[in-house]
């Protein structure tokens, strides 16, 4: 039931239109403009110019009742047309029904946490013939959507989610259930809540967002067996929209997120099983995985996210670079190395100011020489390019301190000749670029163009052992 109004004078067409726009749920006195923020200014002027409020003879509101009395709720300063108090008496069989908000109702039965056990029942049989009853993923989507909407609209619910580690519980229950339940609608609910917490300030929002990221969005064990389209959408969001908010770094622990992402690439989203060559016990083998092409596409999104995360701020941090070098050192499958090595090479080429000192501090050349021992020429060429970018952007002292004490140029020649007795044209071109300190990101398999007049060679003697004056090189 809506409010009932009686006005002392006839309403104009504009006033009727404006009242209609308020909707049937309006139950106030046309006094406060702030109660109708969504209305255009022209309608607000009609509603709140004081004429409607002062013209009220009586107003009965279904909320303002006392037993069988419906209380007069018109403004007290209006002209009274009654000899006695104008409260209305409801008919004998009419009763006032009090309703409560969903937040109050939920709080009265124990809070949002009473819904968590329902997630443990997603795979329970339904109906009289359990084995023939199909699963209903929409139940999970409805439940997750409801919880996320409650988090968006109530600070109390947010507080309960934090106190009870709600997202950790949800993640645990969803991992135990069939991944058929984690549909595009479920992901949409999580992403919608993420966007809300990023853009709308609340006292609990920052901590709740950290819980959501750590236990849900950044948890590969939850997503690895979900439909490929869902995984792709998640990591595409992280690589594009997620980092667009400049305030995100108040909420994301940057270094730990980089480490967590590298762990995800290594143990979950591998292209080739790393057990045999790398001795790594892979995860994500207990269910259906995306095919190799889809894995490569997802890894591409993850590396875009990783690169943007590293560069958002004052450049790469040493611990972040260390995690990448650890990956390149401990992983031995070429298919699992290509994209990560390419990302590191691009970082070195595009952001030498922070990369070169960090690379030197973390002894990155050790990872390069490990990669130079690969049987795959493409990996060796990428490693050479990485070394070339590092040396070309280093000071003379840094180059000397890194390469000379252990005669690394001679070691470079030995590594290049480890799997062949001669240098290929592509390898020769990479060494030529190192000599001239003009490194190209592209691998050139044909004869290199003639050097331009402004090219200079840093120290030709340094590369004598690498093929230019090495008698063992044919």
From TrEMBL:
Biological processes, Gene Ontology terms: intracellular protein localization
Signal peptide: none
GO MF annotations, alphabetized: protein kinase binding
Domain of life: Eukaryota
Listed GO CC annotations: cytosol; membrane
Residues of the DUF4704 domain: 81-461
Composition bias type Basic and acidic residues, residue spans: 451-462
Residue span of region Disordered: 451-474
Protein name: Putative rugose
